[in-house]
Fold:
Amino acid sequence: RHPGWPARPGPLLVSAGSVELRPPRLRDATAWSGLRLRDRVYLQRWEPTTVGDWRDRNAVLAWPAQWSALRGLARRGQALPFAISVDGRFAGQLTVGNVVRGALRSAWIGYWVAEDVSGGGIATAAVALAVDHCFGPAGLHRLEATVRPENSPSVRVLEKAGFRREGLFERYLDVEGAWRDHYVYGLTVEDRPEGVAAALVRSGRARYA
Ligand code: ACO
Structure:
């Protein structure tokens, strides 16, 4: 058992609905694949280049291997992989990855949300729940996120959650077949003593259930 896993942070209410994080399930296959195939154009622009065809990699039959890989990382304490649910429906994923303990106690965070429910505060609420969970039960001290400067919605999500822009990683990640610059954003426990969800609620961006 690793601190903070398994967990179900939430809910937090935003305009799009009631946002919760939970471990991914084998039976998410149909919902996951349905969204990933439908939203290909919207997602592929921002996701790391991977080998193989999008349709094969995001088919219903591709989920068991992905789910099992995520579950293995979580069991080894290397990741906290969450499904984002909105009003009980699968709406995207948020992954806390490369969990390093010891004197660093740090990890990265990444996420995607279905296009038809985007713009309603879901990703911001999901990030808030994840950060508070990581800085609380999971015992981490720092979270980091890398985002392409062109990805305005994701930059907004990080800034609404209180992340600080720390720099620019040049030619950092292979996205859409080329090396793309990424901003690096960071947040440590000291930046948000009251918690990120509480800060969102205080600013009127979210409500407690
Ligand atoms: N230009 C500027 N701002 C925009 C634009 C735009 N074209 N489109 C939306 N926004 C704003 C919204 O208005 C909102 O800000 P506001 O609350 O100040 O009005 C903000 O961007 C989005 O906030 P949320 O509603 O909380 O986020 P959402 O649930 O829509 O999810 C996300 C955002 C995850 C980036 C989604 O668009 C997505 O899944 N995109 C594709 C995959 C992706 O880019 N993932 C992130 C990769 S980077 C990383 O993981 C660290």
Observations:
- Residues 96 and 122 are 17 Å apart (CA to CA).
- Strands lie at 12-14, 17-22, 80-86, 89-100, 106-113, 142-147, 164-175, 178-188, 207-208.
- The longest strand covers residues 89-100.
